[in-house]
Write a structure and sequence with these properties.
The protein is mainly beta and 223 residues long. Helix content is 6%, strand content 43%. It has a single domain, classed as Pectate Lyase C-like (3 Solenoid), CATH 2.160.20. Pfam families: Pentapeptide (PF00805).
């Protein structure tokens, strides 16, 4: 099941992220759906319940921003940094994320299905449910996160790494993984074991997976 390259190592996500430079702080931002904003800094403000579908944020910094139930359908985050954002309900299906970092994210339910992530780092967050169904992930690193349920149903992922994460349920039905590295993360349960094809795991994880593998193959284990 584990797969490695000819050189013996699973390729890591290719990330060269940098914080947005020269941003202008906007004290009372007034964002509208379809807006294109560039080089702006939003700090300790609330977009709760806002209608921001199709918005584009480029080289923007968001610090301590509330995004609860904000409509971010089709939004684009390009070379942005999001730090300490808060949203019991985060709604951004069909969104695009490129060369963007998210740190200390506190989201309850995150609806991100049918989205695209290119060179993205999610670090140090706590999320209850992350719905990435049918999304495309390329060069994505998720590190030091606590995630209740991570739904990767139908995902196409290349160079995805889950590093030092604690994940309750990982769902992989129909996932297509290439050079995915799951080592050093823990999972309480995994659904869709066939979706693990193309992933690298460690020996400890293999031991934890043994009962699920046996069940999926109809094996009966007796001492």
């Amino acid at each position: 099941m584990p797969r490695k390259t000819a050189g013996g190592a699973t390729p890591a996500p290719r990330l060269a992220l940098r914080a947005p430079q020269g941003v202008t702080r906007v004290a009372e931002p007034r964002l509208l759906d379809g807006d294109h904003r560039e080089g702006e800094h939003y700090e300790r403000t609330s977009f709760d319940g806002g209608e921001l579908a199709g918005i584009t944020l480029q080289e923007c910094l968001l610090e301590g921003v509330r995004l609860n139930d904000t409509d971010l359908r089709g939004a684009r985050f390009l070379e942005c940094a999001l730090e300490d954002t808060y949203a019991p309900v985060f709604r951004a299906p069909r969104s695009s994320w490129r060369e963007t970092s998210l740190r200390s994210t506190r989201w309850g339910s995150a609806e991100l299905y049918d989205s695209r992530f290119d060179a993205v780092h999610l670090d140090g967050g706590k999320l209850d449910y992350v719905n990435l169904r049918s999304s495309q992930l390329t060069d994505v690193l998720v590190s030091d996160c606590i995630i209740g349920e991570l739904d990767l149903t139908g995902v196409r992922a290349t160079r995805l790494a889950l590093r030092d994460c604690t994940i309750g349920t990982l769902t992989l039905d129909g996932a297509q993984l290439k050079d995915a590295d799951l080592r050093t993360s823990t999972f309480r349960s995994i659904h869709g074991l066939d979706g693990l094809r193309g992933a690298t795991i460690d020996e400890y994880q293999l031991q934890l997976l043994a009962p699920f593998l046996a069940e999926s193959m109809g094996l009966r284990i007796e001492g």
